[in-house]
Amino acid sequence: MKLMVTILAGGLALTAPGFAQTFAPPEGCSAFLTVQSRGCRVSHHYRCEQDRPGEQWRSDFDQEGLFFSSKIDAEAQWIESYEMFPPVKQMLEPNPADPASFSDLLGGADSFDFALSRDNGERTRVTGFDRLTGQTVTIDGIALKQTRFEFTERDASGTVLRRAHGNEYIHPDWRLFFAGPSRWDAGDGNELAIDGSPVSFVFPGEPGFLATEPIFDCDAILSQAPAIHRLERASHVR
Questions:
Q1: How many CA atoms within 13 Å lie on the side-chain side of 217?
Q2: Could you give the CA distance from residue 207 to residue 9 in angstroms, rounded to a whole number?
Q3: What is the DSSP pairing of strand 176-185 with strand 123-139?
Q4: Domains in the chain: boundaries
Q5: How far apart are CA 90 and CA 98, in angstroms?
Q6: Are 49 and 28 in contact (CB under 8 A)?
Q7: Contact call for residues 194 and 127 (beta carbons, < 8 A)
Q8: Band of residue 21 on the pLDDT scale cut at 50, 70, 90
Q9: 168 within 8 A of 149, measured Cβ to Cβ
Q10: What's the Cα-to-Cα distance from 222 to each of 2, 157, 215, 225, rounded to whole Å?
Q11: What pLDDT digit, counting tens, does each position of 34-71 carry?
Q12: Reduced to 3 states, what is the DSSP secondary structure of residue 159?
């Protein structure tokens, strides 16, 4: 896929010595938001001319560089995503049993039941819910609605691969989810507490827009980063 190649090439350039540490969206795409979050992650949100109305992308960086990218639609469904090391493409399968719906969530709650296929042959099923708590949280001057979520991902045989519960945040106008404090289980029954909450929202023209270096919790989180990223990048956090 042309877009995937562009993203990977950009990521390699960004991590190579001598290159400016800023993210360049693929050709035909325009970035509108950079988010510095807890857990040593910075994310860039952008839209592309060739995509359908309402679709948008997010690319995530940690201290090692670009590690994940995903596209959602107007209902915040994961349409496709890419892990970088090793490269794996994941797609939403057609005709989900219960499609995720951002519109339903704005009305109070949304359940979901859908399948994902990876180009390495893996197929998984994701079930769960998002529910508004009724609380509004202001972070860096941006008002976000708080949600409560639970989800479970199983392989084709029904074995639990990961499950999580906790809080996230949404911005109704941007139709975006942001991570929050949560607890994750990688299928072994042992829960890991994670807080990937946004700390700083950076817009075009502001210092730090498109910067690829995360700035929050990086020293404290370094030893846990691989485990955290494996869980979060495979989650329904869109």
A1: 20
A2: 25
A3: unpaired
A4: 2-233
A5: 19
A6: yes
A7: no
A8: confident
A9: yes
A10: 33, 34, 12, 5
A11: 999 999 999 999 999 999 999 999 999 999 999 999 99
A12: coil
